[in-house]
């Protein structure tokens, strides 16, 4: 699947040059979107961390890409040297610029998003920053965001796992949902689903990522394993080193989720699993029901039925898994 013709043109119009990617450590936003795009375009790029001290001698005449966030040191650097940069870009893969979305977040997320993203909107426009976005939803929402002469570009995700992520089929009975703290509502929604699945299939292990609070909530289910949160690099290694059976990607109807990208599709494939996905515009971009995954309405009974059908039907799992491996996202030719 690719972008529409007008959006292909937008990608083609990305400025040529040497890029500096400013990121908050190794992270999925860079690995799913920004780095694959620059690599495909054969643009040279160097990655800097938020904590790095920028030096104009190294960065002059480059195009600076902020991945989601703008740290204060780098903002001051741009204020001083914008005239010596070849370009400025902000990439977002959440709706970081809508105050109504921020209001729905936990305090920790709200504070970070406001401090590192939301409050910089006017500044980014004044600095004539191009806007790169991860979804059609964001592309349409911010079509008038850029200042005259700036570029709005939609970037599709690409799997960062390589071809070996989906090269085998193992049937160890692990069902997983690896939602971040911003997906706590999805975890709450899934717990009654897990209870019914475990009643029918007590041999199954369910794997979540969470804190001690979630761990205590799950103590009554010895089959539920709660992993500690980990770095992006550690998470990638974990997925590829230990294969799983079924991956889950629910999405409740919230303002935050409206802007999600379908990157969990790649996580699930890399884990050697098949996916049960919310029947949402987010996952319909990549998933065809009963072809390379299951698209299911956000009804708990329907999810119990979908998960148990995959546990019981080895042939269905195998067919879905093989097709998911074939359907890794292929971008249109753009160079």
UniProtKB/TrEMBL annotation:
Superkingdom in the source lineage: Bacteria
The name this protein goes by in its record: Glycosyl transferases group 1
Source organism of this protein record: Nitrincola nitratireducens
Lineage of producing organism: Bacteria, Pseudomonadati, Pseudomonadota, Gammaproteobacteria, Oceanospirillales
């Amino acid at each position: 699947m690719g972008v529409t013709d007008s959006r292909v043109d937008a990608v083609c119009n990305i400025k040529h040059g040497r890029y500096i990617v400013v990121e908050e450590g190794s992270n999925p936003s860079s690995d799913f979107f920004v780095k694959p795009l620059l690599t495909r375009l054969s643009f040279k790029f160097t990655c800097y961390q938020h904590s790095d001290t920028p030096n104009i001698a190294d960065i002059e005449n480059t195009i600076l890409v902020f991945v989601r966030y703008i740290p204060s040191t780098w903002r001051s650097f741009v204020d001083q040297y914008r005239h010596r940069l070849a370009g400025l870009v902000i990439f977002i893969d959440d709706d970081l610029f809508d105050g109504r979305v921020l209001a729905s977040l936990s305090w920790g997320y709200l504070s970070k998003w406001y401090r590192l993203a939301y409050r910089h909107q006017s500044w980014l426009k004044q600095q004539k920053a191009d806007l790169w976005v991860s979804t059609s939803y964001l592309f349409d929402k911010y079509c008038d965001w850029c200042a005259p002469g700036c570029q709005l570009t939609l970037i599709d995700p690409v799997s960062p796992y390589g071809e070996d992520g989906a090269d085998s089929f193992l049937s160890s009975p692990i069902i997983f949902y690896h939602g971040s703290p911003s997906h706590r509502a999805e975890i709450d929604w899934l717990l009654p689903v897990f209870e019914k699945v475990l009643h029918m299939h007590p041999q199954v292990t369910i794997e979540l990522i969470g804190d001690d609070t979630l761990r205590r909530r799950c103590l009554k289910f010895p089959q539920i394993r709660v992993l500690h949160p980990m770095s992006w690099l550690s998470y990638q290694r974990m997925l590829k080193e230990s294969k799983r059976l079924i991956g889950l990607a629910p999405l409740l109807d919230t303002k935050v989720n409206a802007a999600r990208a379908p990157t969990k599709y790649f996580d699930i494939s890399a884990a050697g699993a098949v996916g049960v996905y919310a029947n949402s515009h987010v996952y319909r971009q990549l998933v065809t029901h009963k072809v390379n995954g299951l698209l299911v309405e956000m009804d708990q009974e329907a999810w119990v039925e979908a998960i148990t059908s995959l546990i019981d039907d080895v042939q269905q799992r195998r067919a879905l898994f093989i097709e998911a491996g074939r359907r890794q996202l292929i971008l249109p030719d753009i160079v």
